[in-house]
Automatic annotation (TrEMBL):
Gene field: cadA
GO cellular component, one term: plasma membrane
Entries under Gene3D superfamilies matching the protein: 3.30.70.100, Calcium-transporting ATPase, cytoplasmic domain N (3.40.1110.10), Calcium-transporting ATPase, cytoplasmic transduction domain A (2.70.150.10), HAD superfamily/HAD-like (3.40.50.1000)
Topological category with respect to the lipid bilayer: Multi-pass membrane protein
Protein name as catalogued: Cadmium-translocating P-type ATPase
Domain HMA intervals: 45-109
Biological processes annotated in GO: copper ion export; copper ion homeostasis
InterPro entries: ATPase_P-typ_cyto_dom_N, ATPase_P-typ_P_site, ATPase_P-typ_TM_dom_sf, ATPase_P-typ_transduc_dom_A_sf, ATPase_P-type_domA, HAD-like_sf, HAD_sf, HMA_dom
Membrane-spanning residues: 178-201, 213-236, 248-267, 279-297, 431-453, 459-479, 770-787, 793-811
Compartments (UniProt record): Cell membrane
Keywords, ordered alphabetically: ATP-binding, Cell membrane, Membrane, Metal-binding, Nucleotide-binding, Translocase, Transmembrane, Transmembrane helix
Pfam families: E1-E2_ATPase, HMA, Hydrolase
MF GO annotations: ATP binding; ATP hydrolysis activity; copper ion binding; P-type divalent copper transporter activity
Region of interest (Disordered), ranges: 1-49, 118-166, 368-388
Length: 816
């Protein structure tokens, strides 16, 4: 509920900060709301659906096939780990996509990249998996049209934030069903095996065998059709749509054991007596109990794998205090518009990205930078939505809202990475799409061969074992869970990975190129010296003013430091006209009737020995010498320096230990660039390089067979970032719009370059382990089950543990 017109006494600092003694000016009238609330809906043609009922890799294929059958759909990718579908379509609407999914037997709800449910058809469910215990539903089967509500589902109000732990209710449900099935299965097991261990009991049982078997049948029926109902409803749903999945295998296997035992109990008697060796109720009961145990453990592990994403979503503020005159109203964050004036109290989260208007405060930005020390903010400072005000109240104006905020873009990047598929996963999907039908054929052949051999009971047992052990769940989870944990772990480290292909490229990178200014160095340049060498009537301050007057129209770090130096000296700047910037060369303009040129390119031949020595000594110190010309004649030098990042040398050393070559690419003169390269231990140096030449250098290394990762700040090296096999952009504050990079390193620390490479190598290694064991498990288990060397109960346990082991192995990525 919106709280309106909360007054305060024109001294918001006083709230929670009476001791500070600071007094703020009277509030101004709030800014115009012409822009209105930010639209959080997805971009036209890009849709995200939360899918209900995905139980295995075959379900993934079924949903993708249903979505791709819709006219206008260009691409559809379903992720089993996140239970989400990403759809790119040239011409369709969200309701058509939802109906296509429902027609295939699954539920769907539209969500955006921020995790908000969107307007949808009446039949859309609110939470994936609410009644889908690993694929089925405990209630009636779903309707096929959007006009009828899906069984057990509630239609959410559009705009409500979805449960980031939606998997938790499903985990609780598996736990509940398991604890129902376990004691009942134990009773069936005792009823079946007890008489063998107690001779006196055995004699009584044999005299009342029909009643004994009937008790087993009734209890087993409760286990199968109540605790395990989801498997049967899921199998029926798939069969209605001409498909088969994990539910089909479990339902057919346990159903066959139950049906065979029931038939044997009523019609398989010899001399009117039930034959105990043909009763397998305990097999069906224990299989369901073990599979429920496995699913419970699997969902718990998958829940843990989503912790990083859940943590990101929990950072998103829910409320904002919008200022109106001398009061404020508390509104949902999604209603904040660009230009709104907001009040941020002590210990509240900053609601959206913006700029401080008045007040001073300390803000905890650890969610963005990883640094625990709060950052001091004052009027004009940039603040990021989701960070926390740890001191005094301040006012701010909203500059980015909704999906444009830094946090929203981080969340979207992580979700995109989790939903993407590496090439190896597409191969797995193709194999999985035909896996279940092949298993069904193998099971039938197994049954017929053993039946032909004269052993009907053994035929049934072996067929059940084949069906139960062959679930492709592990195959379906091997890659998505690895990507889910990896992208979440990367986000925790401030590493935003674009997609799964990026991980592969990062693993293969054997050359890392670094831009110098702002990448290997801090980018905060300082003017070291100003020296007039020409016109005797000029002073050093005069030269600085002329240079700063033209440089004030440039955003280059060198230009900024010259302008800043003039400001620190309180020197008034002059108006500059006809200003032209020459990329990588310099800047020129007219100031007070004189042509002023500032350039880093010096012509040594035109200097006397004293000036050459001046330049060389500066370059030997790693400094950059700028030549200032007046009316095309040398007037003096401005020397600037840039501090090397403190972590740079260690990063280069770690890359060398990883057998990765390092290259520094810079527009600086070779001499002073060589000083920095030698100090850091960089293998190769490319100096005097213009910005448009960096991409050509990357291409040259690629032609030598190298896999190149380019690290830059995304300002003057965008082309090189695109050309590289892997583009890595350093980013600070809210500047996350690095469309040219594959990986964005939030916070600007170079350590994250090595961490990104380590994480990618570890992730791909663990994913390959998952796939290897998933394939080996099925390749070995199915033949053993077919020839009778694997009991159905052991097969059920092995099947359940295969999925758990894959997810648990993926969780190891959290320690990388």
């Amino acid at each position: 509920m919106t709280r309106k017109n909360q007054p305060y006494n024109n001294n918001p600092v006083a709230e929670g900060n009476e001791k500070s003694g600071k007094h703020k000016k009277n509030l101004q009238q709030k800014s115009s709301q012409e822009n209105g609330p930010q639209d959080n809906s997805p971009e036209s043609g890009d849709y995200t659906l939360q899918i209900d009922g995905i139980s295995c890799a075959n379900c993934v294929t079924n949903v993708e096939r249903a979505l791709k059958s819709v006219d206008g759909v260009e691409q559809a990718d379903v992720n089993m780990g996140t239970s989400e579908a990403r759809v790119k379509a040239a011409s369709t609407d969200i309701n058509t996509l939802i109906r296509a999914v429902e027609k295939a037997g699954y539920g769907a709800a539209a969500i955006d990249e921020l995790g908000y449910l969107q307007d949808q058809s009446p039949g859309a469910p609110s939470e994936a998996g609410d009644e889908a215990d690993h694929g089925g539903t405990d209630k009636a089967d779903r309707t096929k049209t959007g006009e009828e509500q899906s069984a057990g589902m509630e239609v959410p109000e559009a705009g409500h934030k979805r449960d980031t732990h939606a998997i938790a209710p499903r985990t609780s449900r598996f736990r509940k069903k398991f604890w129902i099935a376990l004691p009942l299965a134990a009773v069936v097991f005792v009823l079946d095996m007890g008489p063998m261990a107690i001779p006196a009991w055995n004699e009584w049982v044999m005299q009342n065998l029909t009643m004994w078997s009937l008790a087993q049948m009734v209890i087993t029926a409760v286990i199968l059709f109540y605790a395990g109902a989801s498997f049967f409803t899921g199998a029926w749903r798939a069969a209605k749509h001409g498909a088969a999945d994990m539910n089909s295998l479990v339902a057919i296997g346990t159903g066959a054991a139950f049906a065979f035992s029931t038939y044997a109990m009523f019609f398989g008697r010899e001399g009117g007596v039930v034959q105990p060796n043909e009763i397998y109720f305990e097999t069906a009961a224990i299989i369901i109990a073990l599979i429920l145990l496995g699913k419970w453990m699997e969902e718990r592990a998958r829940h843990r794998s989503r912790d990083a994403m859940a943590g990101l979503l929990e950072l998103a503020p829910q409320r904002a205090n919008r200022i109106a005159g001398s009061s404020y109203e508390t509104i949902p964050v999604k209603d904040v518009a660009v230009g709104d004036k907001l009040l941020v109290k002590a210990w509240e989260q900053v609601p959206v990205d913006g700029e401080v208007l008045s007040g001073q405060a300390s803000v905890d930005e650890s969610m963005m930078t990883g640094e625990s020390v709060p950052v001091e903010k004052e009027p004009g400072s940039e603040v990021v939505g989701g960070t926390r005000n740890t001191s005094t109240t301040f006012e701010m104006t909203a500059t980015r809202v909704g999906r444009d905020t830094a946090l929203a873009r981080i969340i979207k990047t992580v979700r995109d990475a989790q939903s993407s598929k590496p090439p190896i996963q597409r191969l797995v999907d193709k194999v999985a799409s035909i896996f279940v039908p092949i298993v069904l054929v193998v099971a039938v052949v197994t049954f017929l061969l053993w039946l032909w051999a004269g052993s009907p009971a053994q035929a049934m047992v072996n067929m059940v074992a084949v069906l139960v052990i062959a679930c492709p769940c592990a195959l379906g989870l091997a890659t998505p869970t690895g990507l889910m944990v990896s992208s979440g772990r990367a986000a925790e480290k401030g590493i935003l990975i674009k997609d799964a292909v990026t991980l592969e490229e990062a693993r293969r990178a054997d050359v890392v190129m670094f831009d110098k200014t702002g990448t290997l160095t801090t980018g905060v340049m300082q003017v070291s010296r100003v020296d007039v060498t020409g016109d005797d009537t000029l002073t050093n301050n005069d030269l600085l003013v002329l240079a700063a007057s033209v440089e004030q129209q440039s955003d280059h770090p060198i230009a900024n430091c010259i302008v800043r130096q003039a400001g620190e000296k309180e020197l008034p700047l002059l108006d500059a006209e006809e200003v032209e910037t020459f990329m990588g060369m310099g800047i020129t303009g007219m100031v007070s009737g004189r042509k002023v040129t500032v350039s880093a390119h010096t012509v040594y031949e035109s200097y006397d020995e004293q000036k050459k020595k001046y330049i060389e000594e500066a370059q030997d110190r790693g400094e950059t010498v700028l030549l200032v010309r007046l009316n095309d004649r040398p007037a003096g030098f401005i020397t600037v320096s840039d501090e090397v990042r403190p972590e740079a040398a260690d990063v280069i050393a770690r890359l060398n230990r990883m057998n990765v070559e390092t290259v520094m690419v810079t527009g600086d003169q070779y001499r002073n660039a060589r000083v920095v390269a030698d100090r850091l231990g960089i293998d190769h140096l490319e100096a005097n390089v213009k910005p448009d030449e960096k991409a050509k250098i990357v291409e040259r290394y690629q032609q030598l067979g190298k896999r190149v990762a380019m690290v830059g700040d995304g300002i003057n090296d965008a082309a090189a970032l695109v050309q590289a096999d892997l583009g890595m952009a350093l980013s600070g504050g809210t500047d996350l719009a690095m469309s040219s990079s594959d990986i964005t390193l939030v916070g600007g620390s170079l350590d994250k370059v090595v961490e990104a490479l380590d994480l990618s190598r570890g992730t791909l290694r663990i994913i390959r382990q998952n796939l290897f064991w998933a394939f080996v498990y099925n390749s070995v288990g199915i033949p053993l089950a077919a020839i009778g060397l694997l009991s159905p109960m052991f097969a059920a346990f092995a099947m359940a543990m295969s999925s758990v082991s894959v997810v648990t192995n993926s969780l190891r990525i959290r320690r990388l």
